[in-house]
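Bug #2210: C-alpha cell dump truncated for NodT family efflux transporter outer membrane factor (OMF) lipoprotein?
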Amino acid sequence: MWPQRDWWRAFGSSELSTLIAEAERSNQDIGAAKARIEQADAQVRINGAALIPLIQGSGDATAQKSPGTPVVGGFQAALSASYELDFWGKNRATLRSAQASALSARYAEEVVALGVVASVANTYFALMSAQERLAIAHGNVKSAQTILDAIQGRLDVGTANALDRAQQRAVLDQQRATIPPIEQEIRTNQTALALLLGRPPVLLPVKGGRLASLKSPRVAPGLPSELLLRRPDVREAEANLAATDANVTAARAAFLPSIDLTAQGGFESAALRSLFSSQSAFYSLAAGLTQPLLDPTLPGDLDLAKGQYRENLYAYRKAAIQAFVDVENALITMRKSAEQQRLQEAAVKSAREAYDIAQVQMREGTVDIVTVLNTQQTLFSAQQNLAEARLARYQAIVQMFQALGGGWAASGRRPGGAPLPETALMK
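Reproduced locally. Full output below:
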C-alpha cells in the first residue's frame, strides 16, 4: 500500500501535523519553487507566441501649410500582421521544450516540498529525543545523588571510605555535565524548526514529548515498476529529458529556411470624413524566405543541445536507479533500527534490574561500591542508547516514506501526477 498524501498523520502527533501544515504554507524554499513554476509557465506563453500571428494597429494624422497655400493634411488607419510559417517544427519544438520545463518545475516543487516535510518530521523527532534524553539525564542525576547520600551515610558510620565517596561524586558530576549539551541540542532543533516554518530564529514553542508515545506506522511499498511514477525526482528528470529532446529538434530546424508572411491593410484619406470609405481602402501582402548560410553558431547550438540531452539521459537513468536504491536502503534501515530498539529495550531492562539489586545489597552492606558504580554506569548508558535507538527507528520510517515519493505532500494532486505527453517523449 502506497503512502497517503498526509502520511505523517500516521505517527499520531497532532503537533507534528500542525508544524508540517505551517511549513507547507510558509517555507521559503517551497515558496521559491512555486515562483519558479510561475516563471516556467510564463516561458510557455512566451514560446507559444511564435505560433500566433503578430497583429499591430497604427493611426496617423498629418497637416502641412506653406506660405500662400492652404493647409494640406492626411489621415491613415492600418492593421499589420506578421507570421512565421513553422514548416520544420522549430517553434513547436521550442514550445514543447518550455512545456516540459514547466512540468519539470512542478515536479521540482514536489521534491522540495517532500524534503521540507521530511526535515520537519526528522527535526521534530530529534527534538523529542533530546527532551527524552534530558529527562533521563535529570533522573540519572537524582539517582546518582541518592547513591552519594547513601555512601555518605555509610562513611559517617565507618563502613565506607573517602575514595568511595569521591568516585560516586565523579559519577554525579559526569551526569550533570551531560545536561548543557542536551539543552543546547533542544534549542538548536527549535531554531531549525523555526527556519523550516519560515520564522525568524526565536524561541519556538514546541511541546514535544516522548518518542515512545508515538505510533509506529506500517509502510508496505508497492510494485517496483510503479515507483518510477511516484517519485517526483524521477518525473522531474524525465521532464528535463523531454525538454532537451525538444531543444535538439529546434536546433536542427534552425538550419532550414524560415518563411515569413506579412500583410497590411487599412484606410488612407486626405479628409477624416472620408477615411473609412471604400475608395480609401488599401492593402498589401508579402512573403519572405530567409536561409542561414554562414552562421557559425548553428552547429554549436545543435551540439550543445545534443550534449544537454545526453546529460539529462544519464541523469534520468541515475534517478531511476537511485529510487530503487533509496527504497532498498530504507527497508534495511527500518528493519535493523527496529531490531536495535528491541535489543536495547532488553538491555535497559536487564541493566535496571542489576542496578536495583546493587542498591539493595549496598544498603545491606553485602556489595562493594565498585559493583554499584558499574551497574549505575551501565544503566545510564543503556537509557541514552535506547533514546537514540528510538530516534533512529522513527527517522528510518520517515526515510521510507520519502523513498516512496511521500504521497506528493504539498500539492494535493493525485500521487504521481499526470504522465508526460507522448509528443514530448516519443521523438
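Output looks complete on our side. The chain has one domain: 7-58+90-257+298-425. Marking as cannot-reproduce; reopen if the truncation happens again.
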